[in-house]
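pinging the channel bc i need a second pair of eyes. not urgent but kinda urgent?? the chain im working w is below, pasted from the shared doc
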Amino acid sequence: MIVRDALSRGEWLLTSEGGLPSDEARREATLLLSEVLERNRAWLLAHHDERLPPAACRQFEAWIARRAAGEPVAHILGKRAFWTLELKVTPDTLIPRPETELLVEAALEKGPQGEARVLDLGTGTGAIACALAKERAQWQVMAVEASDSARHVAEDNVQALGLADRVEVRASDWFGAIELRPAFDLIVSNPPYIEAEDPHLRQGDVRFEPRSALVAGVDGLEDIRHIMGQAPRYLKAGGWLILEHGWNQRAAVRALFDHSVWDAVETRKDYAGHDRITLGQLKRPMS
């Protein structure tokens, strides 16, 4: 089989059996074949009539079959691009998504330019913690995770990116294993925020992701409430809390930012125009 025919067949299978739109199917087939051959898209276009080795054909067909069955590309490849990084990903973690880069942007904007202590709650793959540490050499980031298996993935990413001197990965159920002092300049989190009965849990990539990283009680706000209740005790006066949340949770999350405690509360939209993060600045620390 030549490159052109492999791509056409892959696209057809992802469309007919996987239910993907044709443009998405073509893009994913190209990505998977690029990874199999360890060649970029430009090479595939320039060598469209080149014959594939039998082993490459078998691997490509196996990956296409897995994707057509719904398995996320990130799980098939075992990695995902996020910010400027390439991160290890497994079924034990949430797959990093482009929307979360908005949280990274806000943290870099609001955090100190010099030294800072940063807390990443529910770090998963370590995506947020690693992105922040990569951009700010003077920041010390504590990345906490309750899941042992997810925490090991975060540790692997920290080591692979050479960030072990700036990122500490710690076992903790939210604030459970964190000392009150010294306080943090910045607390960030992409917590679970999906409602327990949300029908989207039975669709797309989330079917393959850990439910504990997605669902937060009946209304999806259980974990955000917990974070909001505890964060003022761990932040410095003037420190920032930045939370990712669901597109329809703006009003509910903003209501949790008590204006006697928080200042400069704002909500920002993601690249698709959906409300995605809310942030606020602590007026004064709480005991």
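so The chain has two domains: 3-70, 93-282. and The chain is about 40% helix and 20% strand. — does that match what u expected or am i reading it wrong
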